[in-house]
Automatic annotation (TrEMBL):
Single annotated GO MF: transferase activity
Coiled-coil annotated residue ranges, if any: none
Binding positions (ATP): V288, G289, G290, H291
Native source species: Cacopsylla melanoneura
Positions bearing carbohydrate: N247
Annotated protein name in UniProt: Adenosine monophosphate-protein transferase FICD homolog
Site (Important for autoinhibition of adenylyltransferase activity): E206
Annotated keywords: ATP-binding, Nucleotide-binding, Transferase
InterPro entries: Fido-like_dom_sf, Fido_containing, TPR-like_helical_dom_sf
Length: 331
């Protein structure tokens, strides 16, 4: 008879355990549902349900786990910015700068962070150019950011005038050099040295470890440098060949450049380092860090568009430094 109560207690215990288990699962399901955060599509800051910058209804999406992590970085960055602003108000500029740098490091595309960091740079360091870059980046992330728009409109005029002044100084130096006779020994030496430096810095950007003296030696003697890879030698030789091609054939054809000319330059740049890929458009997709270059099918139309711009009146009237910068921007 004693066994009956024991069995009843055991059965009740099992039922209670199952009930508690299903209750916990249900509560966890509700919790995970509430943890889903509503975001405005492409918004750089967590969306709070209100549209502060326009009245156009935007589609709502649910953030997955990776979005939540991104959102947590934004929240931390915005909190850090608030602390930095308080530090600035109390005159602790060094601590404020470190906080701004930290916020920028964890949320480099957050428009609020970029705008606040730009304002700090402008007010405390009087660095208009760096501040303008921050406002510009903020508008790239969020074109409708009101304060960044106001700041950018103000600084853009100042930066534009600084650029014009800088270009005038370059033109003055160019004019001074052009008045020197071509036969002047000092000018010949300076042009030759500039040629070596151009090659040295160009291949150096791509990771070539050759020194300036080693670069000069390879170009002048075509002799190998001990301890350096064949690829590094070939990069220097290819660039030297491409520059000679430009100086001998294209220098007098400004405004009449063709796609074939670009491929001829490419053939010489890569002719030693990668002869099978030189002088032709790539046929496979490549990736450069977080940037995704155009697909192979888009390359030819984009190159035709680039050549049309390169030979256009607007490009020819543009300052050479500005046109070279615009022409080298990634697509």
């Amino acid at each position: 008879m004693r066994s009956v109560p024991v069995v009843v207690v055991f059965v009740l215990g099992v039922l209670c355990s199952l009930g508690v288990h299903y209750l916990l699962c249900y509560l966890q399901g509700l919790s995970s549902h509430h943890d889903m955060v509503l975001h405005k599509t492409f918004s750089p800051i967590p969306y709070d349900g209100s549209d502060k910058y326009n009245n156009i209804p935007a589609p709502i999406i649910l953030a997955e786990k990776h979005d939540l992590q991104h959102s947590s970085s934004n929240i931390e960055a915005l909190g850090t910015i608030s602390a930095a602003i308080e530090m600035k108000k109390t005159g602790k500029l060094d601590k404020a700068l470190k906080l701004f740098e930290h916020a920028f490091a964890i949320a480099p595309q957050n428009a609020d962070v970029l705008n606040a960091y730009g304002e700090f740079i402008e007010e405390t360091q009087s660095d208009i150019i760096s501040a303008d870059k921050m406002y510009f980046k903020a508008l790239i992330s969020y074109p409708d950011h009101g304060q960044a728009l106001v700041n950018r409109q103000r600084t853009a005029l100042v930066v534009e005038e600084l650029d014009r002044d800088f270009l005038r100084k370059i033109d003055d130096k160019r004019d001074k050099v052009s008045r020197i006779p071509e036969s002047d020994p000092a000018l010949c030496k300076a042009k030759k040295e500039s040629y070596f430096q151009h090659i040295y810095h160009t291949v150096g950007i791509e990771g070539n470890s050759m020194s300036l003296a080693q670069t000069r030696s390879i170009v002048e003697t075509r002799m190998a440098v001990g301890g350096k890879s064949i690829a590094e030698h070939n990069e220097i030789l290819g660039l030297d060949l491409a520059l000679k091609y430009i100086n001998n054939t294209l220098i007098n054809r400004v405004g009449d450049i063709t796609v074939h000319d670009i491929l001829e330059i490419h053939k010489r740049v890569l002719g030693f380092a990668d002869p099978l890929a030189s002088g032709m458009f790539r046929r496979t997709q490549v990736f450069v860090g977080g940037h995704i270059p155009p697909t192979p099918s888009h390359i030819i139309p984009l190159m035709d568009e680039f050549i049309a711009w390169l030979n256009s009146d607007s490009a020819l009237r543009m300052h050479p430094l500005l046109s070279s910068v615009r022409g080298s921007k990634p697509g």
